[in-house]
Every structure is written in structure tokens, then in C-alpha cells.
Amino acid sequence: MPRAKIPAAIAVIPISLILVSYIGEAPAAESTRSIGAAPAAGSARSGYRVSGTGESRIPGMAPAFELPAVDGSGTVSSRDLFSSNEHTFLLFWESGCSRCVEALSGAAVFDGNSGGAGVGLAGINCGDAEPFEIRAIVEESGAKFRQLLDRGRAVAARYMVPISAFTIVLVDGDGRIVARAEDPQGDISLVMEEMLLGDERYRFN
Known about the structure:
Distance between the termini: 84 Å
Helix content: 25-40%
Structural class: alpha/beta
Number of helices: 6
Strand order of the largest sheet: 5-4-3-6-7
Number of strands: 7
């Protein structure tokens, strides 16, 4: 009895399905990124990219910035700020924060006792107050160190500064963050001294 022939169409279909299934299968996109790796350009994670510089943020390094001086004397860059001192304190504050204004007075005491000996200070006002209002507060606090204006909190956001919280960031001459204190209580002058001496409570990891 002659063997029945299998139609060619039936024989080919399974092979075609296998090929289509194999070709259409692609490796899954990597869902995680290693810690510290910078996202591709245009990523929404703006904390990893400093606007206008094209520099990727390196873990432990202070994000770069350029801000106008409150007194209208020009623009100050973080590179010049950090490289001109062995250590630089960045003091983030807001005009409408009563604790911030009080802490600014404590920073002025520290500046009078320890500032200038390789230690620099820069206040960064990240509120919406007008420059003349900021200057009046600074004058009342007794602070003599420079004050910069961070309208819109762009720089404060890169440094992850909470809203209405006086925040101190200590940066070395190479631009590395070595200590940080958010809303520190007590004598601000003493807190800054302890940060400068490497107190473990404020060490930035």
C-alpha cells in the first residue's frame, strides 16, 4: 500500500513558526544601573548632569555650578570657589526660614574665628526673596562672607537640600564633599568646627 504524502504546506508551517519565534525573541533590556553610573544624555535624572557644563557627576564630587552674587558683583563658579581654599563651606539657606537666619549668624561667628585660614564660606540663598531683602538679612546677621543667589533651587536640588532646612556642605580643594549637616541644632559655629575636624557624625560617605 503506497505511503501517504504529507502536504508541503503542513510540513513547512511548524518550521516557520519556530524561526519567527526565535527571531522575534530579543534579550530583555537591563532594568538596573550600577550605582554611580551616569544616565545617558537627556535623562530626567538631572542630578547626574550639571546644566551647561557637560560634566557627568562623579559620586562624592560636589556638583559644579555658577551662580550670581547677591551683591551684584558678578558670577561665581564652584571651581574657583573650591580651588581657592583647602576647605569651603556651602551654607544653603532661605530668607523665610527663621532657623536659617539664626544659623547664618552662627556661621558669621565661625567665619570671624576660623575663616580665612584656608577655609572659605559661601552662603547660597535658595528662596525667592529679592536681592535687596537678602542683603538686609545678611547685614543683620553679621555675615561678611559672600552670598550667592540660587533662584528656583536648581543648585539646592543637585545637592539634595531639603526645603526650609539650613544645610551645610563641606567641600575640599579638589571638589570632594567631605562632610554634610542638614538642619543642625545648637551652636552652628561649633558644628562647623566639628565638621572641619572630621567628626564622624557629619562625615559624608
